[in-house]
Every structure is written in C-alpha cells, then in structure tokens.
Amino acid sequence: MSTLEGRILVTGGAGFIGSALVWALNQRGHRDIVLTDFLEPEKKWGGIVPVSAHREEKRRNLGPLKFAEYFEADDFRARLRAQPAAIGRFSCIFHLGACSSTTETNADYLNDNNVAYTRELAAWALAQKSRFIYASSAATYGDGTAGMDDRDENLARLHPLNLYGQSKQDFDALAQREGWLGKIVGLKYFNVFGPNEDHKGDMRSLVNKAYQQIQAAGRVQLFKSHRPDFKDGEQQRDFLYVKDAVEMTLHFATTAKEAGGLFNLGSGEANTWLTLTRAIFAALGRQPQIDFIPMPEVLRGKYQYFTQADIAKLRATGYKREMTPLAEAVRDYVQAYLVPGKKLGA
C-alpha cells in the first residue's frame, strides 16, 4: 500500500468524501492531517444561532478520526490571503470543500465558494509545489448528450443542467485557461454513496434515504420517469461506493503522482434505481415495496436520466483495483453502518 509523506490538507474534511478520505488516510497510518470545514455556529445579524443539526452531524463524522489540526473554513481562507507562509507547506492538498447542492440557486455564492476559493487554493498549492487534487463533478456532463468521457481538450462542449454543475465546469475551464490542468488533478465524482453522508439532507444518496423510508413505512418512493425512453425506476446512474471513491482519490497522491488533468471517478457501470433499491431491501432481508411518485416540476428539466463513467483514463494511470460490486457495497453500507448507526472508524 503506497503512502504519503509530509503534512496533508483536506478541505471539507468533516463532509462526506472528505471524512471518508481522512479515515482512509488513518488506515494508512497518517495523522499529520490538517482539516478545514464549517462546524461552528453560524453568524447572523444580532448574534449567532445554535449549531445546526447539519453541522452537528458533521462533527460526529470527525469523532473517530485522527488528525493534527482543524480550522474553520472561513478562518483558513482569511489566513491564506493574509499570511500564507504562516500556514506552512503541505505535501498534498485535497480540496473537497464546496457547496455540493444541485438545487442551490445563489450563483454568487457558488462562484465565490466553488470557483474563486478553488482558484486561490490551486495557485497557492502550485506556488509551494504541493500536489493539488480537487473535486470536480459528473454534474458537468449535463444530460450526457456530449458524452461522459474525461478528455480535457474541449470543455466548452459540456452544458451542466444546474448552477452547481456549472460552478464545477467554470473552475475546470479556468484551470485549463491558466495552463494548470497538466499540473493538478480534478476528479469528476459520479453518484457516490456510503457512510458519513447523513448530514447532506436532500443531497443524501438513495441508499440512505430509502433506509430511512423503510424504517418508517416499510416502503420506498422513487420518481416516475418523465421520458418515454425510460420506464419508471429504470433511469440509470453510475453508483460508486465511497470506499472505492477514496481509494481512487488517494491513487493520484501516491501511485499516479505525475498524472494531471480531469478524471472520471465512477464504477464504470450504469445501474437502474430499481436495481439499487432492490439491493437495499435484500440487505435488510425484506421484500421490495416500491411506490412511484411524480418528479417535482423544478427537477424535470435538470434531471440526469443516464450516467456512466468512462474510466479508461483512470485505468491508464495504473489504477488496477476492482470496484466493489453494487449489491456488496449496499450490503456493507446498510449492515455495517446504517443499521448500527456507525460512522467510519467507529
């Protein structure tokens, strides 16, 4: 198992993929890790509000993990702007902190948080010769009509369906214009699911949502299809277990240290929502009980009916591990984490 040397920075370290990455680093014996995220009470006019359930859940993600130091994300960004030398050097920077809500409508917030801040971090990383690996997204592919391969040369062909996807596309294009893409790595995560995602609310995976629905009512609700070429429940996505996602992410910091550019991170397979849902019921030893409900109007024009990662470029960098089969991944998530209410590392 390849390892890293020196200090490591993980932004979004209390989030879903971020905390899973810290867990994987701990598994490799790493403790000299600095994390940033938003965990403190939010500041409002006239004072502060109590810590939200969202932030409390993220704090629980960090409970079992080992790391050297934690900074609130805003404080870290202010230090980076004022005294970058005082922060010290990192051998590798994993920038996983971002607004990941596909329904976010504040374009200015997305531009500042997902584009401007990423640019600041990337420029700083390159200046101090740190390995810079950041989260892009499969949302940049939009409805998929322009393909879902991760070649870098013609990013303008892609048309995301929501502002979140556009913000990720905007930084990818910025990095290309700056001549950075050959020196940094952007990871286009597909539909990642697994432990430590409880804080994500409506952005949680179907596995997490369906488990809660089964516990409450014994049934699962899926969106009807609003396209004639897809039957209800047969919309397809590339589902990737978070444990596989972090192995792929670490590959670019250990084995593929010289690789640069954009890379798809997915299973390479498209599975239907029905296949996924049946696997959840099977993991619980129950017969499937599924209801189809209308998709909200606000989502219909922005819904991806088919995603499948072309991972040939990832494989070409020497990544040889096989993906966890979907049914096995779902069983591990449900039985080892959701049923006992455990976090990674607990």
**Category by helix and strand content:** alpha/beta
Percent in helix = 25-40%
Question: CATH top level?
Answer: Alpha Beta
Beta content: 15-25%
List the domain count as a whole number.
1
CATH superfamily: NAD(P)-binding Rossmann-like Domain
Distance N to C terminus = 22 Å
Report low-confidence residues grouped into runs of 5 or more. none
At CATH level 3, the topology is: Rossmann fold
Summarize the biggest pleated sheet: 7 strands, parallel
Strand order of the largest sheet: 5-2-1-6-7-8-13
Q: Which shape, going by the Cα principal axes?
A: globular
Tally of helical segments: 12
Radius of gyration: 20 Å
Order of helices and strands: EHEEEHEHHEHEHEEHEEEHEEHEHHH
Instruction: State the CATH architecture.
Output: 3-Layer(aba) Sandwich
Notes on the protein architecture:
With 346 residues, the chain is an alpha/beta fold. It has one domain (8-338): Rossmann fold (3-Layer(aba) Sandwich). Helix content is 37%, strand content 16%. It has 12 helices and 15 strands. The chain has helices at residues 16-27, 53-62, 73-82, 84-87, 107-127, 163-177, 206-217, 242-251, 273-283, 297-300, 312-316, 326-338, and strands at residues 8-11, 33-37, 43-44, 47-48, 69-72, 92-95, 131-135, 185-189, 191-193, 220-223, 236-237, 239-241, 261-265, 271-272, 290-293. The strands form 5 sheets. It has a 7-stranded parallel beta sheet with strand order 5-2-1-6-7-8-13, sandwiched between helices. Helix 6 links the parallel strand 7 (131-135) and strand 8. Helix 1 (16-27) packs across helix 8 (242-251) and helix 9 crosses helix 12. The longest helix is centred in the middle third of the chain and has 21 residues, at 107-127. The protein is globular, with a radius of gyration of 20 Å.
